[in-house]
From TrEMBL:
UniProt GO molecular function: cadmium ion transmembrane transporter activity; manganese ion transmembrane transporter activity
Keyword Thylakoid: no
Protein's name in the database: Mn2+/Fe2+ NRAMP family transporter
Entry keyword annotation includes Transmembrane helix: yes
Protein's membrane topology: Multi-pass membrane protein
Source organism: Planifilum fimeticola
Family matches, as InterPro entries: NRAMP_fam (IPR001046)
Keywords in alphabetical order: Membrane, Transmembrane, Transmembrane helix
GO biological process, one term: iron ion transmembrane transport
Cellular compartment(s): Membrane
Listed transmembrane segments: 37-60, 81-98, 110-132, 144-164, 184-207, 228-253, 273-295, 315-331, 337-359, 371-394
GO cellular component assignments: plasma membrane
């Protein structure tokens, strides 16, 4: 029974992390970049997967062996640093959650034709209902697991109907067509994908979930490793399936609707049925991201006082309600969401850098010896993401606001 429970928990944590990253932004970015780079976008996905694994393995292992959440680890590295990290993560989580709530409303609109604001409120109530449950952790795991399978299954159907050039996609995943003109665009795409997969709050979703469930200490590292890599591979699977679905549409010479690229992929590939399937996928992606963002953002502040920790469920519900109120009254500040998305990619090297320092502090990890290869891998991710993030910040992002 114990093994079965652990398997369920580890997969639940993996799917929580994966579905936290698979939101409205994930769907839009994947289709837009496919239209921009065609089959060569496969290389961007492959490069981002390697960076994702390097980041997430380091972070989850250090959280497990230190038996502390990321913000507490950061405060032990340098007093006050944890508060800064928490501020950045919660700010990014709130901004993204406004977009997630909007995406859930859009999914409802596609399925039932109701006002997206009404759909957003109904979706928020569904998310709140999970945290009103006595066993909110298990309810969250099962919710993420079920809707994760729904998203992958439906997108797989659309991929087959779009008949993508799979051979070309495989080749270009290793030998992309990179020119001087599109090189900066490739950099931004990698930063955006990594930031959207393990940036900001997302990589901590599963790590903190395992900690809350008691999966911690050096003895738990094999389980932590499996859950960590599984989360990245689940995200990568969904990304590749959606990429191939969009590639089939693009390769056929069809144009994506700039107002809603992912919806047009589903509709062009599978007609009106495809459009309705998009509604299900969009709602599933958005509402699971709402749950993941709220849970993880609050996990970054709940340890700062006993009162916050005691009322953490109420804080999660308040976080969801606030996100919904902002969307219903103000809407989605598109440029702000894009900016925060890119900044999430910049939060990653800061957070990972802190974790790598902590990994070699005996006062934090005790007698644990962090593998040299993981340290090197982590440092490489920090350097690459800092460089690519800097290029993006100073060359690509200003174009959005010019």
């Amino acid at each position: 029974m114990k093994k079965r429970f652990n398997w369920s928990l580890l997969l639940g944590a993996a799917f929580l992390m994966a579905t936290s990253s698979i939101g409205p932004g994930f769907l839009t970015q994947t289709t837009v970049f496919t239209a921009q780079f065609a089959a060569s976008f496969g290389f961007v996905i492959l490069a981002s997967i390697l960076l994702d694994i390097g980041a997430q393995l380091n972070i989850w292992r250090i959280i497990a062996v230190s038996e502390n959440r990321a913000q507490d680890i950061a405060n032990k590295v340098l007093p006050g640093l944890g508060y800064l990290l928490a501020f950045l993560v919660v700010l990014g989580g709130l901004a993204f959650n406004i977009g997630n709530i909007g995406g859930a409303g859009l999914g409802f609109n596609v399925l039932f034709g109701v006002d997206p604001k009404i759909g957003a409120v109904v979706s928020a109530l569904v998310a709140v209902g999970i945290f009103l449950s006595k066993e909110a952790g298990k309810a969250m795991d099962r919710f993420a697991l079920a809707l994760g399978f729904v998203m992958i299954g439906l997108t797989l159907y659309v991929m087959f109907t779009s008949a993508p050039p799979v051979g070309e996609a495989v080749v270009r995943s290793f030998v992309p067509e990179v020119t001087a003109e599109n090189q900066a665009g490739f950099f931004m795409a990698i930063v955006t994908l990594v930031g959207g997969t393990v940036g900001g709050y997302i990589t901590f979703a599963g790590g903190h979930r395992l900690l809350d469930a008691g999966v911690k200490g050096t003895k738990a590292l094999p389980e932590v490793n499996r859950s960590s890599v599984s989360g990245i591979l689940i995200t990568a699977l969904m990304r590749y399936i959606l990429f191939l679905a969009a590639l089939g549409v693009v390769a056929a010479g069809l144009s994506l609707d700039e107002a809603n690229p992912p919806a047009s992929v589903f509709q062009l590939a599978a007609g009106q049925i495809g459009y309705k399937l998009f509604g299900i996928v969009m709602w599933s992606a958005a509402v699971t991201s709402v749950v993941g963002a709220a849970y993880t953002s609050v996990s970054f502040i709940r340890t700062f006082s006993k009162t916050l920790d005691r009322h953490h469920k109420r804080l999660i519900i308040a976080f969801i309600v606030l996100s919904t109120l902002v969307f219903v009254t103000i809407g989605r500040p598109v440029k702000t969401l894009i900016l925060v998305g890119a900044l999430n990619g910049l939060i990653l090297p800061i957070a990972l850098g802190i974790m790598l320092i902590a990994a070699h502090r005996k006062s934090i990890v005790g007698d644990y010896k962090h593998p040299v290869w993981l340290t090197v891998f982590g440092v490489l991710v920090v350097v690459v993401m800092s460089y690519l993030g800097g290029v993006t910040l100073f060359t690509e992002l200003p174009k959005l606001f010019s």
